[in-house]
Design brief:
The chain is an alpha/beta fold and about 475 residues long. The protein is about 40% helix and about 15% strand. The protein folds into two domains: about 270 residues, Rossmann fold, CATH 3.40.50; about 180 residues, 3-Layer(aba) Sandwich (Rossmann fold). The mean pLDDT is about 95. The structure holds uridine-5'-diphosphate-xylopyranose. Pfam families: UDPGT.
């Protein structure tokens, strides 16, 4: 490995990074930034004004705002896909990413200044990649989902060609033999969106940026997805796009990271003291991440399912979780009294610390990739309720491949919720999942040791960056 982030001439190198401005994408990018800095590289994070990270929480990193790259129209778009497409369009039109990169390159001309080696982009930011290409700056692509989803999103031509898509009522349970253990119902199906075209466009973005990149960085690790990573390596390496599996990113830079640094919302730490007073393994932690929304009816079923389960629970009810309610979410009448002394509700939790807490025995999650990896890292089995996009395939892997969780499918109904919670927290099936989760937890830690696969991948990544 080249020493202290220096190139062949000994001059220090700088890496610029540009995350997609959403929690599930900003966190892994900032964690990667921290890991690269720890290897001696200078690091600059480009960011939009929308969901801007707080530089004070990252003293070692430089930040450059690309002010209006996400215009009001994009920030106000009702769905995430429309936001991403609008952001790319605005970036291309304004030319501000190009200007920000050009200015970093000009600064690098100064004596003793690090040279700008590359731009690391979120896999959806095609416009940032085009801006870099126009300046002759290579890009690397960070994929914030699983290796399985990386493969899945590159397989849509095959899925259409073989007739799995568009899905129909009769083929939903059909196994996809080319991509086990996935079934048709686990696929994000663009034809089911009101605007099919934008669904297909979003799928193409990651493939396009990867093809045009000098390398793919994956937020996963060998112990979890050895088969998928092997297939990706076989496919990409001959195309000059080496893959680097550097996860779990939240533990790569600092072993003591609690996630407070990368969280866009203030974390309510009162729940930690509440957990301290609970018996080991007794609490179900419930959170659906930063963007997923549920209907009012589903919200009510979740509440009464938790109440009826008889289990202690910590539930994150973030503002905006329920469709149609923008402010603080009211809990159903009588719910507080029904769960008195047994349930705690917060608007946003210190999730990584919660999952590491001995009182937590299960995680009801929407199967967002960061949440899944954080749960795997702490050896906590899951109740998976995937809601959209990559979450559907992740939920299937949790249940069928890693066998670390119960998959909650179909209409959300309190009786089914109670049964699923009991299965996870009380029955033999859940106990077996807990044992497997403990076993995987040990393996994950070996990936992070100095000679482990993820640390080696970061070393290789740094060498690769310096060779660009
Ligand atoms: C999104 C997508 O939904 C997900 O499928 C994709 O893989 C990444 O982008 P999000 O829905 O927010 O992300 O879920 P997830 O990937 O799980 O990320 C949520 C992050 O917020 C986690 O890092 C988690 O630790 C953090 N979090 C969540 C908190 O800090 N506090 C909370 O109360 C809840």
């Amino acid at each position: 490995m080249a020493g202290a982030g220096g190139g062949a001439d000994g001059r220090r190198a700088r890496v610029a990074l540009f995350p997609l401005p959403f929690q599930g994408h900003i966190s892994p990018m900032l964690q990667l930034a921290g890991a690269l800095r720890a290897r001696g590289l200078a690091v600059t994070v480009l960011h939009t004004a929308f969901n801007a990270p707080d530089p004070a929480r990252h003293p070692g990193l430089a930040f450059v705002a690309v002010p209006d790259a996400i215009p009001e129209a994009a920030a106000a778009a009702t769905n995430g896909i429309a936001k991403i497409l609008a952001l790319n369009a605005a970036m291309e039109a304004s030319g501000r990413v190009r200007a920000a990169l050009a200015s970093l390159m000009a600064a690098a001309e100064g004596e003793g200044e690090p040279w700008l080696a590359c731009l690391v982009i979120d896999s959806t930011l095609t416009a940032a990649q085009k801006a870099a290409a126009g300046l002759g700056l290579p890009t690397l692509v960070l994929h914030t989902g699983s290796a399985a989803c990386f493969r899945l999103f590159r397989s849509y031509d095959m899925l259409h060609h073989k007739g799995y898509l568009p899905s129909t009522e009769s083929n939903l349970h059909m196994p996809i033999k080319e991509l086990p253990p996935l079934q048709v119902r686990d696929l994000f199906d663009p034809s089911k969106l009101p605007n099919k075209e934008i669904g297909q466009k979003i799928l193409n973005l990651a493939t396009e940026t990867t093809t045009n990149s000098s390398g793919a960085i994956l937020s996963t690790f060998e112990a979890l997805e050895p088969h998928e990573l092997g297939m990706i390596r076989d496919e990409l390496a001959p195309k000059g796009v080496p893959p680097f599996a550097v996860g779990p990113l939240h533990k790569l830079a600092t072993a003591a990271s609690r996630g407070a640094e990368t969280s866009l919302l203030d974390q309510d730490r009162s729940c930690v003291a509440w957990l301290d007073a609970r018996a080991p393994g007794s609490v179900l932690y419930v959170s659906f991440g930063s963007v997923a929304r549920v209907t009012q009816d589903e919200f009510v079923e979740v509440a009464w399912g938790l109440a009826g389960s008889g289990r202690p629970f910590l539930w994150v009810v973030r503002r905006g979780l329920v469709l149609g309610v923008e402010g603080k979410q009211e809990l159903p009448d009588g719910f507080g009294a029904a769960v008195e002394g047994r349930g705690k509700v917060v608007e946003w939790a210190p999730q990584q610390e919660v999952l590491a807490h001995p009182a937590v025995g299960g995680f009801w999650t929407h199967s967002g990739w960061n949440s899944t990896v954080e749960s795997v890292y702490e050896g906590v089995p899951m109740l998976s309720r995937p809601l959209f996009g990559d979450q559907l395939a992740t939920g299937r892997y949790v249940a069928d491949t890693w066998r670390l969780g119960v998959l909650l499918e179909g209409v959300l109904e309190r009786g089914e919720i109670e049964k699923a919670i009991r299965k996870l927290m009380e029955e033999d099936e859940g106990a077996a999942m807990r044992e497997r989760a403990k076993g995987l937890k040990e393996k994950v830690r070996t990936c992070l040791e100095s000679s482990g696969s993820s640390q080696q991948a970061v070393d290789k990544l740094v060498d690769h960056i310096l060779s660009l």
